[in-house]
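Quick illustration, no need to memorize.
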Amino acid sequence: MSKVCEVTGKRPMTGNKVSHANNKTKRRFLPNLHKQRFWLEGEKRFIRLKVSRQGLRIIDKLASSKS
C-alpha cells in the first residue's frame, strides 16, 4: 500500500535520525494520511480517498467556498 496523498501528491521523505551523541541513521518521514469518505453531490455517491492533513484542509476550503 503506497503512502501517497491522492490530493496533494505528498510522499514519504528520507532524512537522518540524530541521537543525543549526534549519531546519524537513515529514517523515513511519512505523511499524515487518513482514509476519508467524501460525498459527491453530482454523482450522488461516496468516494473514499487517502488524503493527508493538508489535503483535507484544501478540500474543506474548496467545499466552503462553493457554499
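The two ends are 35 Å apart (CA to CA).
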